[in-house]
Amino acid sequence: MIHRVAVLLCFFCIIISITIICCCWFVCWSQGSDADNIIPDRVTLGGTLRALTHEHMMYLKERIEEVVPGVVSAYRCNGTVDWQLDKHPYYPPTVNDAGAAAF
Which helix (H) or strand (E) holds 65? Predict the structure, then answer.
């Protein structure tokens, strides 16, 4: 039997694991329980991911999709990665023209 505390430990381990992979990761919101004195049995995490090149972004996306299932299975929890591309489309990194940026 897995106690509800494992869900929170899993949640924090996912945050730490993704932060180790990429430093341009921002946790924007999380949702667990509506009450302060309840340990949730479900947690949702949302954030943004930034990269300087398209290739690096695809690498980070692939690594996150590998890490999250591994972490949740270690805690005997369930978890998925949903990029929500229908709500938040992927925008490639903006690369400034070297000549225009030199001043």
Answer: helix 54-74
